[in-house]
Amino acid sequence: MQLPLSDDFLSIVLNETPLLDVRAPVEFNKGKFINATNLPILDDEDRRLVGTKYKEEGNAAAVKLAESLIKNEGKEKRVAQWKEYLHKNPDAKLYCFRGGQRSGISQEWLNETGITITRLKGGYKAFRNFLMQQSEEISAKTSTLILGGRTGSGKTILLKKLRNTIDLESIANHRGSSFGSYVNAQPSQIDFENNLAYKLIQFHHKNFNKLVIEHESHNIGKAFIPQSVYNNFMQGELILLETSLEKRAAITYDEYVTSALKDYEKVYGNEALQRWAEDVNAGLSRIKKRLGNQRYRELKELFEKAYTQHESKQAKSLYQEWIMRLLNEYYDPMYDYQIKTTSIPIIFKGDEEAVSEFINTQEK
């Protein structure tokens, strides 16, 4: 009997279909898809041994070795895990790297127990190629409004209030500055690209006139926007969000101090404040060369003063003084120069209310 195969990758993206990935953990950790769960048919060492056998003696010998490594008890254990997963995710699809031996065997084993699951034609590789092709094609034909503004102006806050947006920093799990790391690690480069492709495809099928993104560099932390996609994004038009220095300092304090510490507490508990301060100091060290020695020492001392008085009533004002100096003396001159020299046409400037109203008019 011919078991079901499918290459309807678009449906998987639009429905965020659960996926059963039977590749080895080392493969899964290098790159995976949204809603994919790794329940491997071979572990990392077994995969290495089978791969070596394949290179030395061919496919038949590799399959025979794989079967001997799994044995009956291993097969029963794996099938039980897959059945438990499929009980919770009955619409899931199955794949391995190329959609061949491993996923084919997994599909047959499940079929023996009365469970039919659809296997992805071409596996991970074909689906990944589909996503990368779609990213390039969709970004090329999508008109972008690029939301710019000085650091702390509230661009992310505004993006969350709009419907026709993709939050690149959220996908990258990074705030896009020297102090922008979150407690949880960024996704791998491949995961970032896959997740961005999902968002682009889903956006494309909502039929908006314009895509709104934040004005980003080619990289967001350690995550790089694919060059062709980035170039397409930068063909758009620039809108500048104007916010007072005092309000920007307050927004930055809420995000980088108050909210950040809550995240650190979830991970580090009683050590949260110390770990957070260490990471802030590491961020300062990364920009030391640009700051210059004198300014670096002054900003470091000001932060240490705020940190040592963290529990006092003066702490907030000290942190905001430190933030205002960073914004005014470091981030603003860099961003102002970037805007002065940009080739992207600036079509509007205004505060949050005015910018929001302008963007909404572009959809009418």
TrEMBL record:
InterPro entries on file: AAA_SelU, P-loop_NTPase, Rhodanese-like_dom, Rhodanese-like_dom_sf, SelU
Q: Which UniProt keywords apply?
A: Selenium
Q: Where is the Rhodanese domain?
A: 13-136
Q: Does the keyword Transport apply?
A: no
Q: Which SMART domains match?
A: RHOD
Report which superkingdom the organism of origin falls in: Bacteria
User: One biological-process term from Gene Ontology?
Assistant: tRNA wobble uridine modification
Which molecular-function annotations from GO does this UniProt entry contain?
A: tRNA 2-selenouridine synthase activity
NCBIfam families per UniProt? PRK11784.1-2 (NF008750), PRK11784.1-3 (NF008751), tRNA_sel_U_synt (TIGR03167)
Q: Report the protein name in the record.
A: tRNA 2-selenouridine(34) synthase MnmH
Name of the coding gene: mnmH
